């Protein structure tokens, strides 16, 4: 398949992009996610996963199923999706399709599931290959999906002694294939890969070499569900969690 994406995968990425653009910054978005089923105990593939960005909190998980179909969504697909929601502990779900749904599907969806229309013609001007390439060695065709833009405000002193403040903007996100965290600095344009499963990792700085660094870790909630988390460490006292994604292993 190489660098090409089938139309159904492009449709999934488009849905993820639109979700990330419309959601509050309190939430982060992961395309092509994988979450461990609480009932089945097996990894469940999720087209688009929406989670709380800043805390180890899985109580507000939302999942999205992008169905690029020529026919309408029927009641069986809603029932299957609700089963998926129950298995991964999702509080709400979105079924996104280009051709609508049956009346029975709408009744079965009730308040837990929203069915949304996204016409196929929106794909005409959408190409995920314009996204930056994943910089992790071994990930050949992955593209980085940006879903957060943390800012850092830094107090500086000008050459004439005048105090001033500068704001530095970054993009944070994940690879759409290997799902690993990436950070891009808007100042030096460097893209960093930040692993969450390397105990020897002491953090990453971009070429600006300013007093902050990026580090990732694996955390657990009170139920034992694990998530990878990307942190921004500023100086020696401030640490912010700026991105998350649930893991498919216990």
From TrEMBL:
Q: Which residues form the Restriction endonuclease type IV Mrr domain?
A: 7-124
Q: Which top-level group of life is the source organism from?
A: Bacteria
Q: What is this protein called?
A: Restriction endonuclease type IV Mrr domain-containing protein
Stored InterPro entries: Restrct_endonuc-II-like (IPR011335), Restrct_endonuc_IV_Mrr (IPR007560), tRNA_endonuc-like_dom_sf (IPR011856)
Coiled-coil regions listed in the entry = none
